[in-house]
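Need a sequence for this fold. Nothing fancy.
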């Protein structure tokens, strides 16, 4: 097991390229199950979740190669419609195979994602919508078993805007007979990217980028290639790293407009932001930053996946601030670890109440999840002394060797092996 040793105090400076979006790639990869051929997904990040998805698709008969950030997926010889627990338990995005398998083959047996249950959990949105398309659904021994001779179009209105449910139903509807109308669809960039990819395969989708999607089913789709969007969460994390260390950095990424909510809050806090051709610059060299409240929400609001990083940032801001997460109520496991570094944060319900401190001090802390891990790295970069961050395998699920990017910018951070069990 690896850990990071971070020696804080270095002001970050320079330019670094943002990796492709993990969450987008995890939807694009199962979408290739809808066709028979070779599909190439460029700008795919080399992170653990991508490898997990490749292994899951391999179980279904997909032949895959991963070279120089390009995943090639050959879906010409699908041999199974069963997604086993061994792979699905590792990440919730595995449930994305449900829609493509069901609509193309009329059958899918997919392990329930870890921690989910029938009823109040978001997986219910996927299943109820599949039923409206004509699927027979049963749960048996921890598996979702879905059957249908031929899915048909339907009107689907989500009570909650869900990225996962929107993507899954979208993939199921493109090969269903007739028209499907999806109301309150998610409009996150990952869904827009998926929609455009499906259209490049031959799907008929209107309303892309809006909450009202109209899908006209077709008989078959063909293989296609796509260039993945940049990871807006990695971009935001790197920008906050520059701000917390009072640095001057540039990040290179595509579709900068996906960062608007993050950039606006950084400017509100006192950082200077400049935007050019696929470049975002941040100058915090003279930053005496202000405490700014943040409330997460569905896109285009401030993303929940940046909540932990913003909490770390505000821990050193002048004054008091509140960070409220309206998407997940229990996503504050980073708070006690940040407090170990000298932060003054109180978790009240789905909010973090932060009183800024003059300085953080290095300590041994433990990662609890992907974004919490990122917040600890940021705090370590700004803290006095040395910070050890344990269990960084969480971080490797979604960030492509982030320590190398930070080193390019002048950070003192090392990945080392640990004997921890």
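Here you go.
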């Amino acid at each position: 097991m690896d850990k990071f040793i971070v020696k804080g105090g270095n002001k970050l400076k320079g330019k670094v390229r943002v990796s492709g979006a993990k969450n987008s790639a995890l939807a694009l990869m199962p979408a290739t199950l809808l066709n028979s051929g070779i599909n190439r997904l460029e700008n795919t990040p080399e992170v653990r979740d991508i490898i997990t998805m490749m292994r899951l698709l391999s179980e279904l008969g997909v032949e895959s190669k991963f070279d120089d950030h390009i995943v090639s997926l050959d879906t010409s010889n699908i041999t199974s419609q069963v997604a086993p627990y061994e792979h699905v338990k590792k990440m919730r995005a595995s449930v994305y195979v449900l829609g493509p398998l069901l609509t193309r083959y009329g059958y899918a047996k997919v392990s329930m994602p870890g921690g989910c249950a029938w009823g109040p959990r978001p997986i219910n949105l996927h299943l109820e919508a599949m039923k409206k398309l004509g699927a027979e659904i049963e749960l048996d021994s921890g598996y979702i078993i879905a059957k249908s001779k031929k899915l048909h179009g339907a009107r689907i209105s989500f009570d909650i805007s869900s990225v996962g449910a929107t993507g899954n139903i979208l993939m199921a509807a493109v090969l269903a007979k007739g028209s499907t109308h999806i109301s309150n669809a998610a409009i996150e960039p990952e869904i827009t990217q998926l929609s455009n990819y499906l259209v490049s395969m031959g799907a008929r989708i209107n309303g892309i980028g809006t909450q009202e999607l109209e899908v006209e089913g077709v008989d078959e789709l063909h293989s296609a290639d796509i260039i993945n969007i940049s990871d807006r969460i990695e971009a935001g994390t790197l920008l906050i790293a520059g701000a917390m260390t009072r640095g001057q950095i540039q990040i290179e990424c595509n579709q900068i407009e996906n960062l608007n909510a993050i950039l606006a809050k950084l400017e509100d806090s006192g950082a200077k932001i400049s935007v050019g051709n696929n470049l975002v610059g941040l100058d915090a060299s003279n930053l005496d930053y202000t405490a700014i409240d943040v409330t997460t929400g569905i896109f285009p609001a401030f993303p929940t996946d940046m909540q932990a990083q913003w909490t770390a940032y505000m821990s050193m801001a002048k004054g008091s601030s509140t960070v409220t997460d309206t998407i997940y109520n229990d996503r504050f496991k980073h708070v006690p670890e940040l407090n170990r570094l000298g932060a003054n944060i109180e978790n009240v319900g789905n909010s973090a109440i932060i009183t800024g401190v003059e300085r953080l001090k290095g300590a041994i802390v433990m990662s609890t999840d992907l974004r919490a891990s990122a917040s600890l790295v940021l705090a370590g970069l700004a803290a006095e002394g040395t910070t050890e961050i344990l269990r960084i395998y969480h971080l490797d699920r979604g960030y492509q060797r982030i320590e190398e990017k930070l080193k390019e910018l002048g950070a003192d951070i090392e990945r080392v092996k640990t004997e921890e069990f």
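For context: The chain is about 30% helix and 25% strand.
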